[in-house]
Amino acid sequence: MSIISxxxxxxxxxxxxxxxxxxxxxxxxxxLQDYTAGNPMQEDILWTDLTLEEIANLLSExxxxxxxxxxxxxxxxxxxxxxxxxxxxxxxxxxKDKDAQFENISRFKTEYQNTGNPIISIDTKKxxxxxxxxxxxxxxxxxxxxxxxxxxxxxxxxxxxPHGIYDIKKNSxxxxxxxxxxxxxFVCDSxxxxxxxxxxxxxxxxTSILAxxxxxxxxxxxxxxxxxxxxxLVKEIGIEKLIIPHxxxxxxx
Length: 253
Fold this sequence. Notes:
253 residues; alpha+beta; Nucleotidyltransferase, domain 5; seven-stranded mixed beta sheet; two-stranded antiparallel ribbon; 7 helices; 21% strand; elongated
C-alpha cells in the first residue's frame, strides 16, 4: 500500500494562494494604498474603509488576482490590519487630582461594603419624548403599527426624564420618571422615593448613604441648590449623613 503525504501547503491538490500568486503581498498593498488613512502623529496606526469583498474585487480588476475573502482576511492579518471600532478613550483635558479623587471613592466604597449602609449610583438618563414615535423592538399584532416617519420634538405630547438609582450592594436598579425638568430638586426627590420604597427596608439600620454621581448637570457640586436640597433630604429621612465623595464631602443635618 502506498502512502501519500499531503503537506500543509497543499489541500486536495490545490496550491496555496502565495504559490499561485507569488507577488500577492505587493499587489495587495498596492490596492490598499489609495484606500488607507492614518494618524499623522503615529505612523504605525493605519486603517482602510474597504470591505473584504471590495478588496477582493479590486485585486481581481486591477491585478487579475482571484482569491476569496478568507484569503483577504489572512492578508489583512499578516499586514497588521485588525478589525476594530473607535474607542472613546482619549482624554480631552487633564483634571487636577484626578487619581486622588478615584482613590477617595475607592476608599469610601471599601469602608461601606462591610457596613449596613447602602452604596448607590445615581444618574439622569436620556430624555424620551412621548408620542407616536418609532421604538425599537417587535410585537405580535393583528395589524401593522404605523408611527411618524421623523422624530420631531414639536410633535411630542410631552417628555419624560428617567432618573436611575443603582443599589450596588443589592445589584438592583430603581427608576423614577420625571415629567418636568431635570433639576437638583428632581434628583433629591428621586433619592427620596427610592429610600421610602426600597432603601429603608433593605437597610433598616442605616446611618449613612454613600452616593456616587458624575458631579454634572442637576447634581453638580457647584450648585448651592443641590447642596441645600440634599441637606433637607438627609434631615427628612432621618439618617446621620449622605456622602458624595467626588462632589461634596458630606451632608449632615
